[in-house]
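Hi F.,

I've been meaning to write this up properly since the lab meeting, where we talked about keeping a consistent format for the predictions we share between groups. The idea is simple: the sequence comes first, exactly as it goes in, then the structure tokens exactly as they come out, then a line or two of notes. No screenshots and no reformatting. I'm using this chain as the first example so we have something concrete to point to.
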Amino acid sequence: MYKRQQALVLQSRIEEPRRFIQVIAGARQVGKSTMVKQVVNELTIPHLLTTAEEAPDKNPSWIRYVWQQARQSMRLNNHQEFLLVIDEIHKIDNWSEAVKAEWDADTMRDVNIKVVILGSSRLLIKDGLNESLAGRYELIEMEHWSFQEMRDAFGMSVEQYIYYGGYPGAFPLISDEKRWRKYMHDSIIEPAITKDVLTTKRVLKPALLRQLFLLGCSYSGELLSFNKILGQLQDAGNTATLANYLQLLDESKLLSGLQQFASDDARKYKSVPKYQVYNSGLLSANSSLSFQDAFLDPKQWGRWVETAVGAYLINHADRLEYKVYYWRHNDHEVDFVLQSSKKKVAIEVKSGRRQNNQGLVVFGQLFHPEMELVVGGEALSIEQFLLLNIEQLIV
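Output, unedited:
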């Protein structure tokens, strides 16, 4: 089985002396459970791998029960160390408080049980960490699969990746687009909305959130104000509600609303959002265009190309600690602006969507970025960019 780089990180941390709980977080269907099982199966440390799916109810006493099992196994077999892995932990009520109590008890008694926790709801994992486990954990973020990973694992072409995106479970179905699209909606999109968002946060208008997600996916790569959205959605509420729901979708690594780059924060926050999916498969699953139809239409294909580039950029933003913006002034536009503590990088995607765009020139005169990059030109093809280590751009 293909091994993602996060597996190497997790393995090295487990092999270290006990310091922190290791938390695996990421969007649905990115391979979190598979990665952890790969690591556990290759380690020699004795372990207990369990899932909260097996809990008879949501009572946090279940966590105490499985932790006691780990302690008992360690004591009876005279193990010097032990690994406890709990999957789907967010399905237990007040799970973070229960984990904190057991972890602190082991720390006080010098019990060498190392712990890995993960779950399919990124929002619930994040909330639990912020509430109770500060200073006790390290986070390993599982991003959506990159082009290089999909190519190396499945032989995916760059054109296939641009359209179908990086979902390993959906890849075997791409030869049957109707079946692929149904899988995307039934196994990825709907569970992400109903289980990862609606059951996590207090959402007064769930139908509105779902409509916003579907509309935002279809507009990926486009600017669309909240006021214009209000005219297209039923029971739309107000712009503050939409902004809040878009933030939830962003935290779930589904859909982002990029802000316009500006020299002051006020102008950024007031800007019209540019919608950007975290995986281009989300755009395709909500489009009426087939792969062939999209590929043969230069203007339409340009939007898919730009979406794939944007998805690659925002997927690495948290881990590498940079922000992604767009920039527009009159007829001038820059597709993406990266800003880290060290650099500003302006990126133009040559995709056939616009002609004679002088955006990079004007942006450079105004903001003096450390790097200006044209993706899709003679110097750097789309495929080369999607294989590029983003860290090289922003350090």
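Notes:
The two ends are 32 Å apart (CA to CA).
Residues 80 and 378 are 58 Å apart (CA to CA).

If this format works for you, I'll send the rest the same way.

G.
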